[in-house]
Amino acid sequence: MFVKKLVEKATRKHNGGGGINGLKAEEVRPRLVFHYGVPPESSSLAYDPIQHILAISTRNGVIKLLGKDNSQALLQSEAASPSKFMQFMENQGILLNVTSHNHIEVWNIDKKQVTHVHIFNEEITSFVVVQQSFYIYVGDCLGNVTVLKLDNTLQCLVKMPYKIPPSESCGTQTEADSDTAVIFSSPQPLAESKRVLIIFRNGLISLWGIQESKVLLVAGGNAQHSSQEPKLVVSASWACVFGSKVVVGYSSGDIFLWAIPVFLDHNSEALRNHKDSYASQNVPLLKLNLGYKMDKVPIVSLRWFAHDESSGHLYVNGFSDSGSSHSFQVIIINESTQTRTIKLVLPLTEPCLGMEIVSCFSNQSKNKQNTLVLLLRSGRLCLYDDSAIEQYLLHCQSKSPPTLPKQFMVTLPFGDSRITAAKLYIGPSSPVEESVAMQDHILLPNKYSSLFSINMKEKDGSRRSSAHFSGFSKAKNLLVTGHVDGAINFWDASCPLLFPLLSIEQQFNESCASSTAPVTSLHFDVSSHILVSGDQSGSIRIFIFKKLQETSESIFSFLQAKQGDNYTVHNVNLKGAIMSISMNMDSKLLAVGTDKGYVSVIQMEGTTILYQKQIPGQVYSGIMSLQFVNHGQNGSENSILLVGMEDSSVLALEEDSGHALSANPVKTKKTCKALLMHILDASPNGVCTSDCVDTSKQSYSKQLMQKQPLVLICSENAIRLYALSHVLQGIKKVYSKKKLDGSCYYASIIHGSSLDVGLALVFSCGKMEIRSLLDLAVLNEVSLRGLTYPTLKSPPNANSIFCVSSEGEILLVNGDQALLFISVLSHREIYRHLEYITNVYMEGLAPQEGTSCMKNPQKERKKGIFGMVVKDLKGNKTKHGKENDADDSSISEELSALFSTVNFLHSDETRCSSVVNNEDVELDIDDIDLEDTKEKHKGLNLAVLDKQKLGKKLHALKGKLKLNIEEKMNSRKDKHEEEKDISAVDKIKQKYGYATNDESNTVKMAESKLRENVIKLKAIGLRTSEMQNTAQTFSSLAKELLQSTQGSKST
Q1: String of DSSP letters for 224-252
Q2: Which residue, 240, 379, 406, 520, shows the most beta carbons closer than 10 Å to its own?
Q3: Which regions form coiled coils (predicted)?
Q4: What is the C-alpha to C-alpha distance for residues 61 and 59, in angstroms, rounded to an integer?
C-alpha cells in the first residue's frame, strides 16, 4: 500500500499536468538541520572535562561542539572571524571565544547563541579562565592584566576595578625597549585566590600577590641571556600540582623548568622543595634538551597533565612558521628528570595546531578512557590512546621496548572507504512512526558508534557486516552510498546519525580491469526494486531485489533478508567512467552515459546492449544527464531519449534506434560546463504534448508558453530554458535565461508539498540559492560556512558529494570528515531525535573525580575535634560534588572581595590623593582597614569564636593605628617646615583641576570614604552571620554525636 502511495506521489511530481507552478517564497526556508563530523579549516581546540564537550573552532568563525553519546552542535556567529583563544567555563554551559578582532564572544551552549560580545581595546595576547569562579585574566600586548567577570545572570562580561599594570608587575626589571606582552597569566594551583603567575614575552616571570597587590617574585628576563638573540617566550604551562614548577617554551627552541615559591601566607617566607631551594631566581631549575634548539623550532604550545602528586606528562609541540620542521613529543616530568629524560616522539606527518586530553566512556564497560586528540594543520583530527602512551613511556628503556602507540585518524564511520556517490530517498509518513521513534530513542546512546572511537572493530566497519537487516522495517529515510573501493551501503537516515543496514561489497570480475573501482553513479528505483551502479572503470552492476510479501509498513522492507539471498546481480562493461544513468520501466530500458561521450542503451532483461553511440563534444566530452520522455505532437507519440552533454549542448535521440532527431544539437554561444538537465511539465498520462506555437508572432504569450514542456539547462554561470519542441527540431532559441552571480557547481530540482517546482543551486563560495520556476527569481538564500568545495577543474567526486531528494532534503558529504543535513522547505521536519542529538550540555551534572588535567590534592586543613566528629558521623563516603561546590563558592567569594576594589588609582588620582594626604594632619579615613587581608582558612576556625583572642587582635590593631598616627604627625611636622608658600601650591592645583585643602573638599572626600566603609561593614555583617550559622551547625552535629555515643554505650 505504501509503495503504491510513493509511486503515485513520484508520478504526480514528475508528470504534473496543467502547467508549471513555481515554489512560493513562504514555502522556502533553507537551513542546516544537523552537522555530523569535523568541520574543515579547523584551527583550535577547547575541552570541558566535566561536561565532556570538545569545541573545535575554524578559520571562518564556525565552532563545532562534540559531546557525549554522539551529541553535536554547530555554533555560527554573524562575525566570521577566526579564533585566537577559546576556553570553557567548566560545567557552566558557557564557552568564551576570543576572535582575531579582539572581541570576546560569550556563547550559551544550551541555547547555541551569543549572549554578549565584549570589545577589548588592546590586542589580547593571553586569556585564562579562573576555574571554580567567574573571573578571567586577560593579558594584552602592553603588559597589562585585566580582570573580567562573567555576570551569570545577564551572561555578559564586566570589567573589574582590580588591575595589574606592567609598571607594578615587572618590578625593577622593566626595560624601555623590551617586549612586555603577556604570554601567560594563570592562577597558582592551590592558591587560586591568592597568587597569579605572569610571564611576559621578554622572558620575565612575575609572581603576583592578589591580596597584597604587589610582586612577590621576579625571575627570568632577557637581561640574563648573553647571546645576541633574545629568547622570546612563546608558551608556558604549570608542571606541578602544588604550583612549585612552571615550564616555559621559547622561540629559540629552549625549554626551561623554573622553580616557583609556594607561600603559606603573605607574611611568611616561601616554602620550596628541597631540590628547588638551590635554584636562583635568574637560573632555571632545569633545561630540557629535546632537539628543538638545534633547528631553532619555536615551542608553540606546552601542556602538562598530572599522573600523581610527584610526576606527570608534558606534551611539547613545536613547529616553524613554514611548517618544514615540526615535532610533537611526550616526556615524563618527575624527580629523576634532571638525570635522564624519558620521551616519546609521535610520528606526525604535519604540524599540530592544538591538543586536548578527552575522556571517553565506553557504553558497554562504563570504563573511563583517556584519548589524546591532536588537531593537525590540515584540519584533521588525530587520536592516540593515552594509556598506550603511558605504557610506552614506562617500558621504553626496558630490554624489549614496546611498539609505538597506534595512530587513529578521525573519519566518518564508514571504515576506510570514502563516499564517492550517494542517493537519498524520503519515505512517506506511517502510523507507526511515533512508536518506532520512541523505541529508537531508548536505544539511541548504544546504537551508534562514537566519532572518537579508537576501537578497531568500529573503525574498520565490521559493524556493517553484522548489521541487523530487520532495521529496514523501521527505516523512514534511506541513504544509498557508493564508495571508493566499489562497495555499496544502505543506511537508515531516519536520524542524522546514520545507522548501517546492508553492505554489498565489490565482487571480482575477470572482464573488468579493476575489481575495486570507485563508484561514480547510482540510480535506485524504489517502486521496481532495482538498483543500478556505475564505477570509474566503466562497469555497470544491476541489482534486482526479490519482491517479498510485504509484512511491514516501511517501503524499504523488501531489502530485509539475509545478505546475498535477497537480490541478483548482472554486470555490463562499457567504455569510460560512468557519469549518468536513467531508467524507463515501461520499456525496460536502461540508458548510461560515460565521460568519453558514449551513450549506451541496455535491455535490463538479459542485459544486452541495444545500441551504443558516441556524441562528440567541444571542450567537455562527457554525458552529463539522460532522460526518457514520451512526446506527443499532432496526434503522434514518440519515445525519445534526451541527452544532456557536459558542454551544455542538448541532443534528442530515438529511444529504440539511437538516431538523432536533428542534425545538430542545441548549443550555447560560449562553451560552459553543464550541471543539470531536466524536463519540466508533463501531461497526466505521462506524455509531453507540444502545441504548435509560432513564437515569432506578437500573439505569443508567456502564459501560453508556460503550458508547454520545457527543458532546463543549468551551467556554471547561467540558467537557460528551452521549449522541448525546439530542442527536438534543433532550434537554438532560448525561452528564458538568467546569469548567475558567482560560480555554481551543483544544481537540483526540488518539489514542494503542493507539487510546486523549484531549483536549488550551490555556489563555490558556500552560498545556496533557491529559485522559482519559471521566472528563475531568487526566493531565499543561505550561506553554508565551514565547507570545502571542489573546483570545476577538479576530478569527479574529488571532495564534496551532494545528493538531493525530490522533497528538498539535501545531504552533503564533505570528504571523509563531515555530513551536512540541509532542509529547504519550511514545513518539512523529517528527522528523528534532533532535539536529543543536538543537546551537548547536561544541566546539573556533578563533576567526577580526576576530571581536571591537574589532579589537585586535597588542600590541607586543620582537623580539630569537630572535623573528626563530622568524619565519624558522615562516614568515609563524602560526596565530592558538595566539596567541590564549597571550594568553588569559597574561591569565588574571596576573589569577589578582592577584585571589586580599586588597587591602583590612575595617575591623576594618585597625585591628588598624595597632596591631600600630605596636608591632612588628622587620622585619614583610609587608615581604617575593614578588609581581612590575611589568608582565610577554609572550614570553621574556632579561634574566631574565642573572645580572648579577639580582644588581643583588637588591642594589636589599636596599637598599629596609634603608631601610624604618630608616624604621620612626625612626617607632617617635617614636611611643614619645608613648605613655605602653601597658597602658591593651591593656585597650581586649581589651574590643573586638582582639589585644594579647603574644608569643603575634605568633607566631600570623607563622605565618599564613609560610604565605601559602610558597604564594607555590611559585608562583614554578612560574614558574621555565616559564621554564626556554621557554629550552630557544628553544635547540632556535636549533639548528634553525643546521642549516638550514649546509645552505643547503652547497647
Answers
A1: G--SSS---EEEEEE--TTS-EEEEEETT
A2: 240
A3: none
A4: 6
Task: Please count the residues of the chain.
Answer: 1051
Quote the crossing angle between the two packed helices 999-1050 and 907-919, to the nearest 10°. 100
Quick one: CA torsion of 170, 141, 90, 241, rounded to 10 degrees?
-30
Contact (Cβ atoms closer than 8 angstroms) between residue 765 and residue 742: yes
User: How confident is the model at residue 501, as a pLDDT?
Assistant: 83
In whole angstroms, give the CA distance from residue 738 to residue 592.
Answer: 30
Give the separation between CA 195 and CA 209, rounded to whole angstroms.
5
DSSP labels, 826-868:
TT----SSHHHHT----TTPPPPTT-SSS-PPPPP----HHHH
Question: What's the one-letter identity of residue 1034?
Answer: F
Q: Which of the four pLDDT bands, split at 50, 70 and 90, describes residue 594?
A: very high
Residue 248 has pLDDT above 70, yes or no: yes
Contact between 643 and 615 under an 8 Å Cβ cutoff? The reply is yes
**Mean pLDDT across 522-526:** 90
The answer, yes or no, to whether residue 533 has pLDDT greater than 70, is: yes
Contact of 418 with 516, CB cutoff 8 Å: no
Q: How many other C-beta atoms are found inside a 10 Å radius of the C-beta of residue 833?
A: 16
pLDDT of residue 278: 37
Residue 299: closest CA among 384, 343, 348, 236: 236
Query: What are the pLDDT digits (tens) for 853-874?
Result: 555 454 433 343 333 333 343 4
- Strands laid side by side in the 103-108 sheet: 83-89, 94-99, 103-108, 113-119
The Cα–Cα gap between 840 and 854 comes to: 24
Give the C-alpha separation, 94 to 152, whole Å. 9
* C-alpha torsion 764→767→772→773, nearest 10: 0
| Selection from 544, 422, 557, 426 nearest residue 6 by Cα | 426
Spatial CA neighbour of 237 closest among 319, 169, 299: 299
- The separation between CA 515 and the C-alpha centre of its own chain, rounded to angstroms, equals 39
Enumerate the domain spans of the chain. Answer: 22-38+743-841, 231-252+293-409
942 pLDDT band (50/70/90 cuts)?
A: very low
- Cβ atoms of 818 and 64 closer than 8 Å: no
Look over the chain and give the mean of its residue pLDDT values, rounded to a whole number.
76
Backbone angles phi, psi at 640, to 5 degrees: -125, 145
The pLDDT, as a whole number, for residue 1 is 40
What type of residue sits at position 881? Answer: G
Residues 19 and 681: beta-carbon distance below 8 Å: yes
CB 765 within 8 A of CB 746: no
The helix/strand/coil state of 679 is strand
| Contact (CB, 8 A) for 150 and 136 | yes
User: Cα 473 from chain centroid?
Assistant: 35
In the chain, the amino acid numbered 201 is R
What does each C-alpha distance from 997 to 191, 915, 921 come to in angstroms? 43, 9, 11
Buried b (16+ CB within 10 A) or exposed e, 142-180: ebbbbbbbbeeeebebeebebbbebebbbbebbeeebbb
Question: What grid cell was written down for 322?
Answer: 613554514
Instruction: For 658-686, write each residue's pLDDT tens digit.
Output: 999 988 899 888 888 999 999 987 454 55
Taking each helix axis from N to C terminus, what angle separates 865-874 and 999-1050, rounded to the nearest 10 degrees?
50
Residue 209 parent element (H or E): strand 204-209
Is residue 234 within 8 Å of residue 300, measured between CB atoms?
yes
Q: Residues 457-476: what's their mean pLDDT?
A: 49
- In whole angstroms, how far apart are CA 792 and each of 800, 920, 1007, 1011? 12, 81, 75, 72
Read off φ and ψ for residue 191, nearest 5 degrees. Answer: -145, 45
Cα of first residue to Cα of last residue in the chain, in angstroms, is 78
